[in-house]
Design goal:
This protein is of the alpha+beta class. The protein is built from 7 helices and 5 strands, in the order αααββααβαβαβ. Helix 2 packs antiparallel against helix 3, helix 3 packs across helix 5 and helix 5 packs across helix 6.
Length: 342
């Protein structure tokens, strides 16, 4: 009995330490989740702000382009008006020179005939009246010429101001274009980040199953993983794989802000062997398209928004490998998934 009592007294109770460690681990997990939620919140706010700035830049470029078009049209009208005024000025100056020549000729004739007979006095009086009228016309032409020159000077000043504004507008448009390109580059980078996270998540969800792999910017299912040979009906194992894919896409829809335009494109591909006659499908085009549409329908049933899905059939015309062996045929029969911008 003493020995049993000693054994009970000497035993160690590990349970409190285990509870403390579990509590600490739970607190760490809660802390990490809180940090993740805060990061997602600030990332969404930053992306929304960038979208607003991008829309504002687009509006400014449109306004400046419209103003620039109006300025150029006004400049063209001003050039035409100056050309017309200069033509009128040349005509007026020519008429003035002609009248002055006539006056000089008549004045010479009057001086030469100063000692003629009295019968010529009436003719001289008539010529003087004509000369007075010509002088009046010359004075009027001088006033018109002065007015035309003032109009030409004003128009040239207006054109210079227009050219200055044109240069300023072009500079602003160039600057806004650079800012717009920078914003678009940032948007592409953000989408690439979402694509990387999405494919990484798919690899975790679907595991290292045979016939499923990531190739560059594509997630590839070999057709046999989803469909029986020659069919567009997804089998039971394929439905399970597509359902896991749908769950990942639904999570992605929650993370990407609604302002970001993106699509998940489902591409169907077949091997190069022709369809056997008498079957349901007349060509590999129809089979590949039907398989892509079947995957899209299953994703929609899994909760994915149809506005983010695209189905495309490529038949046998986009092979990943050339050859006529069963292994090559199998690699070319596939469903590819791409996350792209719309």
């Amino acid at each position: 009995m003493r020995l049993a009592r000693r054994r009970r007294e000497g035993s160690i109770d590990y349970w409190p330490g285990f509870v403390d460690a579990l509590s600490t681990l739970l607190m760490v997990i809660i802390f990490l989740l809180s940090v993740f939620m805060l990061a997602q919140f600030f990332l969404s706010r930053e992306i929304t702000g960038k979208d607003t700035a991008l829309a504002k830049l687009n509006r400014q470029i449109a306004e400046l382009t419209q103003l620039l078009s109006l300025e150029r049209a006004g400049k063209a009208d001003g050039d035409d008006q100056i050309a017309r005024l200069k033509a009128g000025l040349s005509a007026a100056e020519g008429e003035k020179g002609r009248l002055l020549g006539l006056l000089a000729a008549r004045d010479g004739q009057a001086a030469a005939s100063g000692g003629a007979a009295a019968s010529a006095g009436l003719a001289l009086d008539a010529e003087k009246r004509i000369s007075a009228q010509a002088l009046a016309q010359v004075e009027l032409l001088n006033q018109q010429i002065s007015a035309l020159r003032r109009q030409i000077a004003a128009l040239e000043q207006a054109l210079e101001a227009t050219e200055s504004r044109d240069k300023e507008s072009q500079t602003k448009i160039a600057d806004l274009g650079k800012r717009l390109n920078l914003a678009l580059a940032q948007r592409v980078q953000e989408l690439q980040q979402y694509r990387s996270d999405f494919f990484g998540r798919l690899k975790e969800i679907l595991g290292n199953r045979p016939g499923i792999k990531v190739v560059g910017d594509r997630f590839v299912f070999q057709s046999e993983v989803l469909f029986p040979v020659g069919s567009d009906q997804i089998d039971e194992a394929g439905n399970a794989a597509v359902d896991r894919l749908a769950a990942a896409v639904v999570d992605l829809e929650r993370e990407i802000p609604p302002e970001v335009a993106w699509t998940l494109r489902i591409d169907g591909h077949t091997d190069s062997r022709p369809i056997a006659p008498g079957g349901r499908f007349k060509s590999n085009w129809e089979l590949s398209a039907a398989r892509a549409i079947a995957v899209v329908r299953r994703l929609i049933e899994g909760g994915v928004s149809p506005k983010h899905l695209v189905a495309a059939g490529f038949g046998e015309f986009q092979p990943v490998e050339e050859g006529a062996t069963e292994e090559v045929y199998g690699r070319n029969r596939r469903i590819e998934i791409r996350l792209t911008d719309r």
